[in-house]
Amino acid sequence: MTAVAQALAGLKVLEFGGYAAGPHIGKVLANFGASTIHMESRERPDGFRIQYPPFKDNRHGYNRSGCFAFFNDSKYSVTVDLKKPAGVALARRMAQWCDLIVENMRAGVMERLGLGFPALAELNPRLVMLSTCNMGQTGPRADQPGFGSQLSALAGVCELTGVPDGPPMLLYGPYIDYIASLLGTSAALAGVIRSRRTGRGALIDLSQYECGLVFMGAALQDFFASGRVPTRCGNDDPLAVPHGAFPCRDQEWVALSCWSDADFAALAKAIGDETLAADARFAGAAARRANIEALEEVISAWTGQRSAEAAAVALQAAGVAAYPVVTMAGLYADPQLRARRQFRVRRHAEMGDHAYCYPGFDLAEAPGDIVGPAPCVGADNDFVFRDLIGLTQAEYDAYRQQGVFD
After folding, report:
1. What is the Cα–Cα distance from 17 to 41, expressed in whole angstroms?
2. Which of 159, 192, 244, 288 is the residue whose CA sits 20 to 30 A from 300?
3. Start-end ranges of CATH 3.30.1540.10 in the chain?
4. Can you state the angle between helices 261-270 and 308-318, rounded to 10 degrees?
């Protein structure tokens, strides 16, 4: 772990909610030194702890979810039952301690708990709250729940994914959650900077749905300008041709694209058949598209004799954009990711060694780190409430007797 003073040291963050979009913001902040407290309850823990595999040794348990661990390293975990008035009172006290609250509950839930921004801002005028849910806090769909795959469908992404005659393809993983979380991290830090300069807090209303539209820029602009509705086209591209994934040895694949005639000439040279560039069937993008099946046969015959890595290296050397289609094993073995320390192993109290994912960016003079493994549920109650929040022993015992930490 880093011994260098971290950029966000001293920033105090409190999380309400669970799953992906909210906790990922807190993780990124914690990786750069923020003290991030993840709040849940033992009766209703973060959904990633209990609903999403994989689980260590295929045994379910609050502290055995790899998915929860992956997005919650470097944090503290406390348990507070917000169904109890005393639990809400404790949460309000914590809001006076922190600089930033990140919550991703459904719209209106924080207000119904008595933890909405207006109420907390009276206690802490410098407080910044980032509220991120599927639809944002307003609008006719504001109270609709959902998960990443449905949100990608609603945002138009799935309608453009898949083969022309097939159904829309649901994407693997909650893409929109993570674009929203990185945009949310920037917005949250902007709010904190403003708060420190002016003493005034802010409520940031982040719609994950709207953040997802950044994927759709070209399609949105095309429809606005022409009225054309894009359709599913498999791996085809309106400009690049060939553009797709080609089979290699041992059931591997390589992805490549040619965006110009010069790119195609380079591809022809790389596969050892420079006559292709002069072949009338492939002379120009329109001709290549019209004869794409014949062209893909030629390319596949060449890629099929090589590993995906060897094919990609040869194509890259010729100036053709190409990468292997990588498996999970390939990601952990990738020398580029190793060189940049993307995966960092920390020892989890119950699961043992666990590889955590670094955010994908760093600071040259104040590098971050995976400062600790993901916490077990409620593992930091004593430290957080006594040392950080400042409860006396009598106060702590009173909350415990009321079942607040259950």
Report:
1. 10
2. 159
3. 243-326
4. 130
Average pLDDT over the chain reads 94
Q: At what angle do helices 292-303 and 308-318 cross, to 10 degrees?
A: 110
Residue located via tokens 């010069």 = 262
Which fold is adopted by the domain 12-214+340-401? Answer: Rossmann fold (3.40.50)
Q: How much is the pTM?
A: 0.93
Closest CA to 36 of 69, 75, 80, 77: 75
**Helices 393-401 and 85-97, interaxial angle, to 10°?**
140
Burial of 320 (0-12, 13-18, 19+ CB in 10 A): buried
Using alpha carbons only, how large is the chain's radius of gyration in Å?
25
What is the 3-class SS of 285-336, one letter each residue?
Answer: HHHHHHCHHHHHHHHHHHHCCCCHHHHHHHHHHHCCEEEECCCHHHHHHCHH
Give start-end residues of each CATH 3.40.50.10540 domain in the chain: 12-214+340-401
Token pair, residue 342, equals 């993307």
Within 8 A by CB and 6+ apart from 141, the residues are 134, 135, 209
| Contact indicator for 303, 247 with CB cutoff of 8 Å | yes
Hey, what CATH topology would domain 243-326 get? formyl-coa transferase, domain 3 (3.30.1540)
Distance CA 135, CA 146 (A): 10
Q: Give the pair of three-digit tokens for residue 53.
A: 């595999």
Instruction: Count how many Cα atoms sit within 13 Å of the Cα of residue 193 in the half-sphere of its side chain.
Output: 7
With beta carbons less than 8 A apart as the criterion, state whether 41 and 19 touch.
Answer: no
Q: Do residues 239 and 286 make contact, with C-beta atoms less than 8 angstroms apart?
A: no
Q: Using the Cα atoms of residue 349, residue 354, residue 359 and residue 365 in order, give the sign of their dihedral.
A: positive
CA dihedral (119, 122, 123, 124) positive or negative: positive
* Beta sheet of 321-324, edge-to-edge order: 243-247, 253-257, 321-324
Tokens of 47: 């959904």
pLDDT digits (tens, 9 = 90+) for 145-191: 888 888 899 999 999 999 999 999 988 777 888 899 999 999 999 99
Count of residues making up the chain: 406
Copy the structure tokens of residue 13.
Answer: 């963050």
Contact yes or no for 7/365 (Cβ under 8 A): no
Average pLDDT over residues 228-238: 92
What does the pLDDT look like over 71-117, one tens digit per residue?
A: 999 999 999 999 999 999 999 999 999 999 999 999 999 999 999 99
